[in-house]
Amino acid sequence: MLDSTNEEAKRLARMGALHGEAVVADRQTRGKGRRGRTWLGPDGENLFLSVILRPDLPPTRAPQLVAVAAIAVAEALRSFGAPARIKWPNDVELDGRKVAGILLELAAAPDRIDYAVVGIGVNLEGDLEALGEEIDARATTLERATGRRPGRDAVMHAVLEGLGAWCERLEREGFSPVRARYLELSSTVGARVRMIEAEREIEGEAVGVDEEGALRVLLDSGEEVRFLSGDLVTLRKVG
Hints:
CATH superfamily of the largest domain: Bira Bifunctional Protein, Domain 2
Oligomer: single chain
Strand order of the largest sheet: 1-2-6-5-4-3
Shape: globular
């Protein structure tokens, strides 16, 4: 048990841990989500994983690593029969409910990433009802969605294999193939969405993801805006 696999991974990265080294825990007491939120998952055989990456990329391309990790998680779950899809920017869903989340933390110079820590939490099994009605209504587990219990180690190895392969492809071929696969797996593109950013809320149709990993949203006025971050609510599919 750890307070946070991301915190432990950052500590190891500062000590010189290599690209691809990972921290995994049975349980986290202070797991972290986006914007300082707490990661909540049910007790049981769930995956709490943080991976140290040292990509040859400038910090401006860091959002592309979130896309890489989301693809790796979605493909891993699909290999176990789960129709996983990606909700922009960093959630993986089954049947419209969150089954996994991703948190990226960086240490960088102006021109290069020193290290990135990709934190991944996957709900494999356990009692979501114990976390309250709100969590139970919008989250799920791999077991609940598929009736299968492949085991934490099997899922972890699938995620790590995919993450390594897609990181290599990102560095070798650029973001285009990553973006293409991300769009294939997206549950967001083609939906009407509400974006909540700072003090404003904007509604429109999510029409794509650009080369920087930003979400493109077409407003009713015909104006297109882009978001590199923000909270997203899926309203309905368009068409």
